[in-house]
Amino acid sequence: MFQSNQQLTVHTMPLSIQDPSTMMHAGQNDPSLNARDGTENGAACKVEAVVYSSKKLQDDLKMLGLKIKQHEDNLKYLKSQKNSLEESIVDMQECNLVKILSICSNAIVDLVKYLKSQKNSLEESIVDMQVTLGKYHSSSVPKTESEDLSSVQSEGETVECILRREKSAAAIICQLKTRHGTQASHLPLTMDVLGVVATLGKVDDENLSRLLSEYLGMETMLAVVCKTYDGVKSLETYETEGSVNRTSGLHGLGASIGRPLDGRFLVICLETLRPYYGAFIADDPQRRLELLKPRLPNGESPPGFLGYAVNMIHVDHMNLFCVTTNGDGLRETLFYHLFSRLQVYRTRGEMLQALPLLSDGAVSLDGGIIRSSGVFSLGRREEVDIKFPKSSGSTPPEKYFETEDGIKEMKWKKERLIDDMKREQALLDQTKFNFEVKKQEFVKFLAQSSPYTTQVMP
Questions:
Q1: What is the Cα–Cα distance from 360 to 118, expressed in whole angstroms?
Q2: Per the count of CB atoms within 10 A, which of 19, 20, 314, 364 is most buried?
Q3: Cα 279-202-388 angle, rounded to 5 deg
Q4: Mean pLDDT for back-to-back runs of 10 residues, the chain (458 residues)
């Protein structure tokens, strides 16, 4: 490109033929010719520079074009590799999820199968032991009229006294158990009910029975005892505003048999009680609690001390253990809750002398009652019509109790196995549900993220 102030001057002269050497000599000495030659040479150099720059730019563009193509080919290859890897990842993840589910499902299924086999084995053992007990009952000698008569009469009298409380929950429970027997334990409403406090324990001495019953009070003696809180909830339901539903639960049952409930009633839930965690007296068939005896400063027991009330209750053998899901019996749950460390003394005077040693109150056979530290029950003794029945003096052979204990323990284990089976089945169902949810989330994530992946890597 030439600047505007530079002009190319052309001189028109007549053509003359001269000797080349003369012309060369003359040209060297001609100033106008020298100027023209310089101008022409400069223009040529500039043209050459333009051509060179153009060629260099073309070469650079060509090189960049080759690089662009190379990068495009690389991106195309990498994109195909990415798509292939994504497909492989999806396949592997789905396969892995399926494997995990399969492993979990197989493990739970195997556990359920094992629990079912254990349950069947326990059922067979229970049947065998029940046959053994049946043989004992069929071969035992018939009892005489006097044998166990006082115990039966005492227990029957207690039930009759409860039934006379027509509008009480205890009367409904007793009537149900009296008329329907073992069938009552299979009814949804009462299958978790053990009975009434007054019928779940016995006492050897009638005077002590009356005294302990007075100590507990009528409301507690008529309390309904349930194994679990679910049993408590089934006894009474409520309307949306909080009022009691009179057509369901124990209220509905009472109305249907002509014993409508009136007023409040106590229900004791064994599952929520804090049981006794100490030791038991060794080799004691009644599994009495090994409680430390009160001691005077000289190391001796206070005069007139007869024992603890909780250990003076005779518990039916079937209720000595495996009553709750933790394997506890009625003594260390119900009766320990009711009496705790209540002490029993021969006379009121001896009880008062041991006052500093009374942690949870005391009673005396002549009618004295100290309910707790500093709380005295004074006045005339009350006549109690509902009291603990008198316990029987005769006992079956030791082999009978061992077999009965075995049946009770195996039934308890069977119940725990059934609970475990239900829990494992619930876990299996939940695992399958979680798998389906996660699978749907994963597929949805891939569908939502694919457009962004395409934009970033076309």
A1: 45
A2: 364
A3: 125
A4: 43 47 48 59 74 77 78 75 68 63 69 71 60 45 42 74 89 84 71 91 90 94 93 90 89 87 91 92 88 89 92 89 82 95 94 92 93 87 86 55 60 69 76 76 70 53
C-beta neighbour count of 450 within 10 angstroms: 11
Place of tokens 């000797």: 19
Closest alpha carbon to 340 in 218, 214, 212, 224: 212
Which one-letter DSSP state was computed for residue 335?
Answer: I
C-alpha closest to that of 189 among 136, 139, 134, 257? 257
* Closest C-alpha to 326, from 211, 235, 421, 227: 227
For 347, residues 6+ apart whose C-beta sits below 8 A from its C-beta are 304, 364, 365, 366, 368
Evaluate whether 234 touches 243 at the Cβ level (below 8 Å): no
Q: What percent of the residues of the chain are helix, what percent strand, and what percent coil, each to the nearest 5?
A: 60, 10, 35
Q: Which residues pair with 196 in a beta bridge?
A: 224
Query: Side chain identity at 292, as an amino acid letter?
Result: L
Chain-centroid distance of CA 82 in Å reads 45
Query: Which DSSP string do the residues of 164-187 spell out, in sequence order?
Result: T-TTSHHHHHHHHHHHHGGGGGGS
State the pTM of this model. Answer: 0.57
> Token digits for 367?
């009618």
Predicted confidence (pLDDT) per residue in 344-376, tens digit: 999 999 999 999 999 899 999 999 999 988 889
